[in-house]
Amino acid sequence: QSVLTQPPSASGTPGQRVTISCSGSSSNVGTNYVYWYQQLPGTAPKLLIYRSNQRPSGVPDRFSGSKSGTSASLAISGLRSEDEADYYCASWDDSLRGVLFGGGTKLTVL
Amino acid sequence: EVQLVQSGAEVKKPGESLKISCKASGYTFARFWIGWVRQMPGKGLEWMGIIYPGDSHSTYSPSFQGQVTISANKSINTAYVQWSSLRASDTAMYYCARHSLVAGTIEIDYWGQGTLVTVSS
Question: Could you give the 3-state DSSP secondary structure of residue A19?
Fold first, then answer.
């Protein structure tokens, strides 16, 4: 069981806004940055959001991240069919001295 | 451009040894941590551990400590993960990933394409 908790699934229709949550603790999300990765079917994960709310170049501004206390969220606005993927949150854990991943959320575009 | 290119798929029998590789380019290899992430079939991502090629210091997740060995050769910009005795439960996709030190914590910013390891008798 992952220490960072994500809902296993999320869904939305094209054009909608969806959010995916990530819950941790004081030794990880509460203290350190949160990262979000997108994994399209059959491909390697790709960095989507870094340092809780920053977008790498090339990532559309439809994707945004936020963090409050020991929880973080990924928001996707203007949902598109190509957003259908698995999304993972991650954070450094000071107790583990390693990276923790959430269990992943499978996003379905209806 | 940062690139991490991993070695090809492997099919092994239980008890056999294996070493897979990840060749880095586009940055100073010795100055960034590099590590490995496991993804079992149909499952999520699991962080295995990392190594700093500059001094070969490594750290492992407790789940993988003693189960694998992570190493790096900075003269050829290549990182490795190896098993001395594979089990069927090691069947998974393995990703190498560059880790950057930021504000006292470590972030994963680039990923390799993955190496599929299948262990079956």
Answer: strand
Q: How far is CA B17 from CA B62, B86, B121, in A?
A: 21, 6, 14
CA of A20 vs chain B CAs: smallest distance (Å): 16
For an interface test with B, give the residue of A92, A96, A106 to mutate (most B CBs within 10 A): A92
Q: Encoding tokens for residue B50?
A: 């990392």
Partners of B45 on chain A (C-beta within 8 Å) are: 37, 45, 88, 90, 101, 104
Taking the alpha carbons at both ends of chain B, their separation in whole angstroms is 40
Structure tokens that stand for A98 in this block: 């390693």
Secondary structure letter of residue A43 according to DSSP: S
* Partners of A51 in the β-ladder: none
Contacts for B111 with CB less than 8 Å, ≥ 6 apart? A44, A45, A46, A47, B4, B37, B95, B96, B97, B98
| Residues B87-119 pLDDT 10s | 999 999 999 999 998 877 888 999 999 999 999
Tens digits of residue pLDDT in A37-56: 999 999 999 999 999 999 99
